[in-house]
Amino acid sequence: QVQLVESGGGLVQAGGSLRLPCAASERTFSNYAMGWFRQAPGKEREFVAAIAGSAVITYYQTYYADSVKGRFTISRDNAKNTVYLQMNSLKPEDTAVYYCAADRAPAQAMSVIPPGYWGQGTQVTVSS
Question: Which of 14, 23, 48, 115 could form a disulfide with 103 if both were Cys (CB 3.0 to 4.6 A apart)?
C-alpha cells in the first residue's frame, strides 16, 4: 500500500509560483510512475502531469496537460521518495485541490487510466 502526502498548497497572486512536494511511503518508489491531478469546484478531476519511475540515463520521461505546458514542471527525487510539481505563471483558473498519484503502470497511461494510489490533496488558490 503506497501512502502519499502532499504539501505546499496555499494562496498566491496571479503570475506567482508555488511548488508542491508529495512524499511517498513506498520503498520501491522508483517502480512507480507518479502524477499530479487537480479538481476545481464543480468540475471533474483532471490530469495535470506525470513522470516515469526510472530515468533513461538521467532523463525522466514527463507528460503534461496542454493547459499547463510551459508553466508547470514535474520532477522526482527517488532518493527522497518525493515528487514535485513546480507551478509558475499561475492563473486564477489553476485554482483547485491538487492530488498526487502513483501507479505501476507506465506514466503515459495516467492521463487516460486512473492511477491506483492517491494522496489526500492540497488546496491551491490563485487570486486575480
Answer: 115
- List the strands of the sheet with 82-87, edge to edge: 4-6, 18-24, 82-87, 72-77
**CB crowding 77-116: b at 16 or more within 10 Å, else e:** ebeebbbbbebeebeeebbbbbbbbbbeeebeebbeeebe
**CA 121 and chain centroid, separation:** 10
Average pLDDT on 44-72 reads: 90
Secondary structure (DSSP) of 15-39: T--EEEEEEE--TTGGGSEEEEEEE
Task: Write down the pLDDT at residue 64.
Answer: 97
Averaged pLDDT, 75-101:
97
DSSP one-letter code for 56 = B
Tell me the C-alpha distance between 49 and 108, whole Å. 9
Distance of CA 80 to the CA centre of its chain: 16
